[in-house]
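Re: the request from the purification team.
They wanted to know what the chain is likely to look like in 3D before they choose a buffer screen. I agreed to run a prediction and write the result into the notebook, where they can find it.
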Amino acid sequence: MTGSSGTTDSTSESKIVEAQIITFNPAAQLPLKLTPTNFASWRSQLETLLMGFDLIGFIDGSNVAPPQSISADGAATANPAYRNWFRQDKLILHALRCSIDESIYSFVSAASTARDAWLILEKLYASNAQSRINHLKGKIGKITRGDRDVLAFVNDLKSTAAELALIGEPVKDLDLVVHCLRGLGDDYKAFFAAVRARGPGLTVEDLVDSLVEYESDLKSQQHTIIPTAFYTQGQRSDGHPRSPRGAPPSQPYRGASPSRGQQGLLQRASGPGPSPKQAGPGTLHKCCFSFGPGLISIWHCPFVARPLCNCSIFPGPN
């Protein structure tokens, strides 16, 4: 009776122990493969997975192997706990090997435990990890907007900050805001002043909508420069349109003639073909663009290949 009961207890214990074995799907759970340049990010990925399954002790050394055998009734028998530990360790070692690049595999191919493989990789890439941290900290301070839109600029900042956070070096919200404002450029000086007036507590996410709106306003102002400039050229100091050169004072006139600088722009914009002067009198025609109150008169040449208002040019001096 006692022997039968002992056998039953042993079988139940074995089933319970075997049920605790955890398997992995490296392709789905460890998508980032280790390379010579991303050890810090890869380490964070693996540690997070093992912590989630309460298996981090297999690589940090806190979960050591139990004895391979135990004594029962004076006889040595296989230890079920060791068998369980051994199987789980091999599954972790397999997942680790599957998540590294082929060029690195040879370094851990001879490792007998997950702990051994982990120590080998740490020794190889720990110094590289610190170099990566230093590189990212330097990079985030040098990111500027340049010719990009503000969303691309902000996303670049945030992705760099996220990579630093992933390797244990998070960037404070205030520091990220400072990096953002410094990298915007001179066009955003007014925006910078407005943000400073709002005081502390801002995050980059708080600035995004305002930045996009400010950028849209800047682009709208740039689009109105050309018609406004031509309108100014066509006005006299008394507010009335200038008379075209050579026209009698009493001759009715509805708009301004192009200055020499404007004619030069028209010739350059039109490309090959007769210039306005070569085309003879009467070939310069006036068209009106509605801008603000009333109509703004500008001059354009029929030989211009595209509308003048779509060209990034400005009137030259008379």
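For the purification team: Residues 170 and 260 are 59 Å apart (CA to CA).
Please add any questions underneath this entry.
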